[in-house]
Amino acid sequence: MSADELARFNNLPAVAAREALLDCCSSPAWAERMLSGRPYSSARDAVRQSSAIVARLSEADLEAALAGHPRIGERPGGDGSARSAAWSQREQSGVSGDEQTARELAESNVEYERRFGHIYLVSAAGRTGPQLLALLRARLRNSQATEWQVVRTELQKIIEIRLRDLLAATS
């Protein structure tokens, strides 16, 4: 990312910057804290700030972040932005595969949601459907507290990918 691209993001009007940040993560608390951290000296600085914010998000804030993600194996719904939907499709590009894996992912998603009360969030980039299914099944053995920590970690991985893309593409 060039200094010009970062400067464009840092100089966006607050409303436009907030909207762009909400594309990365649908938690208003995360977006507001990221917005108040501007200007960023580098993408690394922004990612570091994001990590610190995600570590302090409440469960309600995490639930707001989860609301912006489709289930693994499903296409994004119409509620989010085109950029957020495109990111989700790209991140889940390795999921498509055989019908059995798709069916098992759908069934396991339901089981996970029943167990934890929220969607299964995982950084899917570069992973296949069978890999994501195996991770989901392993995470079903987690306690509620452990799973929230895993969600935080996975959310930050997703945000980092999206934030770097956002900062490189800001116009």
Range of strand content: under 5%
Query: Which stretches are poorly predicted, pLDDT < 50 over at least 5 residues?
Result: none
> Helical content, roughly?
55-70%
Judging by the overall fold, what is the CATH architecture? Orthogonal Bundle
Total strands: 0
State the secondary-structure class.
mainly alpha
Radius of gyration: 16 Å
Please write the CATH class name: Mainly Alpha
Number of helices: 9
Mean pLDDT: 87
Annotated CATH homologous superfamily:
Oxo-4-hydroxy-4-carboxy-5-ureidoimidazoline decarboxylase
Number of domains: 1
- Main beta-sheet strand count, sense and barrel state: none
Q: What is the CATH topology classification name?
A: UraD-like
Question: Care to describe what's here?
Answer:
- It is built from 9 helices and no strands.
- Helix 2 crosses helix 3.
- The longest helix has 26 residues.
- The relative contact order is 0.17.
Features of this protein?
171 residues, mainly alpha, UraD-like, globular
Ordered list of secondary-structure elements with their pairings:
Blueprint: H1 3-10, H2 14-24, H3 28-36, H4 43-56, H5 59-66, H6 82-91, H7 99-116, H8 129-139, H9 144-169
Helix pairs in contact: 1-9, 2-3, 2-9, 4-9, 5-9, 7-8
Sum this structure up briefly.
Helices cover 67% and strands 0% of the residues. The chain is mostly helical and 171 residues long.
